[in-house]
Design a protein that fits this description.
Elements lengths: L14 H4 L7 H16 L13 E3 L6 H7 L6 E3 L2 E4 L2 E4 L1 H22 L2
Parallel strand pairs: 1-2
Antiparallel strand pairs: 3-4
Length: 116
Amino acid sequence: MTARYYFCSVTDAVAPLLNLTNGGSDAINKVAVAHLCLQANGPDFRYCPKPAKTILLIKDSSLMQSAQKILKNDGIKITDQGERLLGSVIGTESFREQYIKNKVQGWVKDLQSLSK
């Protein structure tokens, strides 16, 4: 069995699709290119990425507009606050605190209903 290797790079044909010529962060551009490569080559390796289940968590809020502009039509959820991940939470401290607060309130409510 021969191994196949895939290389992706931004070409003149791909750049307009990603809106790369209109500015934006280099990091966001790299994420967009990686996403395109996964979409194109993933199925060959039995990996079918689903943009609707993809979350881009941006640490620097100033990059939010660039990310939304570049990835606007991909169906990726873009946030600079946080998101639940595998039963836990990642993101800003305030987002984590609010998530835990809501979780504890739910537990308290459940315990109160069980104790009646």
